[in-house]
């Protein structure tokens, strides 16, 4: 019977809460909760450059019911300067449980609807506390959820500790990470284990779209979770601005048609306002997306950097960024077209004014 030591589930919910967040101000308003600015601490973490580390804070304990059993849990938050708040509830499965029981526990956490509601409640409370630190505070409708299953140690039927090499061969990960009960084909299993990483012989991480399994024997180590949380926060920003552009572009087209239906005098003035709004939308979207993407930079191909790059690949970060770029390009090209059209309209108005002045001078000369 495979046993896991100090297994836990870390359920995350990430929200966009504003245009940007002053982390220094957030530290001040959260002072009573002992907030911290933390970075990854592993030796290879030097390959990760984080210009403005997020603020981490413990929000308190909760009693949660999972699969008909009550657990003591801890709720925490991480606040990113590009406007994202990440809430996490850490639920311990027990000091020592067998793998089947841990799998059932993990599946129950992953599907429990009360956990997102709990995190949403704490997100609202946190938002109220840090509102003075937020520029343009508002909670966007986009959410990002993720679950990390954490093990400190795993032992096989013979009691020997499983290593990064033996663990995926000994334990069937599909029931936990995919919630699949039927045996998977070899191809599907290979696809599941495609994104697995280890640095030492006793650590291990395997990533999927909406959850991950992390084995780390070091008490309190959380660097892998930190990196996955960062990648999810960046994904959230891409999804948020993709949704913003989806909503704004049709409105811009409607305003263009409305402006074209007015008289020349109102046309040029209303076009000016529209051009200003388009320029602002393009500049703000570009700035925030680049700020989120540049919040963490990788300078070397090491363990944490590989996990970060793999997470962005699994989350389809490039595809989301490409979609945002296409829409920003559309906004920019529409702006350039309208700007040229507005300039042409002003030039035509000026030409008519010159013609009228010339006619007026001729008429006045004839009258004299």
Total number of domains: 2
Q: How big a fraction of the residues is strand?
A: 15-25%
Uncertain runs are: none
Number of strands: 14
Broad shape: elongated
The helix tally amounts to 10
Mean pLDDT, as a whole number?
Answer: 86
End-to-end Cα distance: 114 Å
Give the topology string: H per helix, E per strand: EEHEEEEEHHEEEHHHEEEHHEHH
The main β sheet shows up as: 10 strands, mixed
**What structural class results from the helix and strand content?**
alpha+beta
Helix content: 40-55%
Task: Characterise this structure.
This protein has 368 residues and is α+β, with helices and mostly antiparallel strands. The protein has 2 domains: 3-222, no CATH class; 231-367. 50% of the residues lie in helices and 24% in strands. It has 10 helices and 14 strands. β12 and β13 form a beta hairpin. α7 (223-260) packs parallel to α10 and α8 (264-293) packs antiparallel against α10 (317-367).
Question: Could you give a short description of this structure?
Answer:
The protein is α+β, with helices and mostly antiparallel strands and about 375 residues long. The protein has 10 helices and 14 strands.
Secondary-structure map with pairings?
Elements: E1 3-16, E2 20-21, H1 23-29, E3 36-37, E4 48-50, E5 55-66, E6 69-80, E7 84-98, H2 99-111, H3 114-130, E8 134-135, E9 143-151, E10 153-155, H4 167-170, H5 174-177, H6 186-192, E11 196-197, E12 204-207, E13 211-215, H7 223-260, H8 264-293, E14 296-298, H9 303-314, H10 317-367
Parallel strand pairs: 9-13
Antiparallel strand pairs: 1-7, 1-9, 1-10, 2-8, 3-5, 4-14, 5-6, 6-7, 11-12, 12-13
Helix pairs in contact: 7-8, 7-9, 7-10, 8-10
């Amino acid at each position: 019977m495979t046993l896991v030591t100090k297994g836990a589930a870390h359920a995350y919910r990430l929200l966009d809460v504003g245009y940007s967040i002053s982390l220094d101000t957030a530290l001040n308003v959260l002072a009573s909760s002992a907030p911290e600015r933390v970075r990854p601490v592993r030796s290879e973490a030097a390959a990760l450059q984080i210009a403005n580390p997020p603020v981490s804070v413990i929000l308190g304990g909760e009693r949660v019911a999972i699969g008909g059993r009550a657990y003591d849990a801890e709720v925490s938050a991480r606040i990113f300067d590009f406007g994202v708040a990440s809430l996490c509830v850490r639920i311990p499965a027990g000091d020592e449980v067998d793998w089947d029981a841990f799998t059932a526990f993990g599946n129950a956490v992953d599907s429990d609807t009360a956990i997102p509601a709990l995190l949403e409640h704490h997100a609202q409370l946190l938002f109220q506390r840090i509102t003075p630190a937020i520029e343009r505070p508002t909670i966007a409708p986009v959410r990002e959820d993720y679950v990390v299953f954490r093990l400190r140690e795993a032992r096989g039927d013979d009691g020997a500790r499983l290593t990064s090499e033996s663990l995926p061969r000994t334990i069937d990960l599909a029931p936990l990470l995919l919630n699949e009960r039927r045996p998977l084909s070899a191809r599907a299993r290979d696809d599941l284990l495609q994104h697995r990483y280890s640095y030492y012989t006793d650590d291990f991480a395997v990533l999927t779209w909406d959850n991950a399994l992390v084995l780390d024997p070091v008490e309190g180590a959380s660097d892998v979770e930190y990196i996955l949380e960062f990648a999810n926060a960046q994904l959230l920003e891409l999804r948020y601005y993709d949704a913003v552009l989806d909503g704004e572009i049709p409105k811009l087209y409607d305003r263009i048609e409305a402006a074209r239906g007015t008289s020349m005098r109102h046309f040029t003035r209303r076009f000016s306002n529209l051009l200003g709004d388009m320029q602002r939308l393009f500049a703000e979207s570009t700035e925030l997306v680049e700020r989120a993407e540049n919040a963490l930079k990788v300078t070397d191909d090491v363990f944490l950097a590989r996990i970060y790059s793999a997470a962005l690949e699994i989350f389809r970060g490039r595809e989301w960024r490409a979609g945002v770029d296409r829409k920003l390009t559309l906004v920019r090209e529409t702006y350039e077209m309208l700007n040229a059209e507005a300039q042409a309209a002003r030039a035509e108005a000026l030409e008519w004014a010159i013609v009228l002045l010339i006619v007026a001078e001729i008429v006045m000369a004839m009258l004299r």
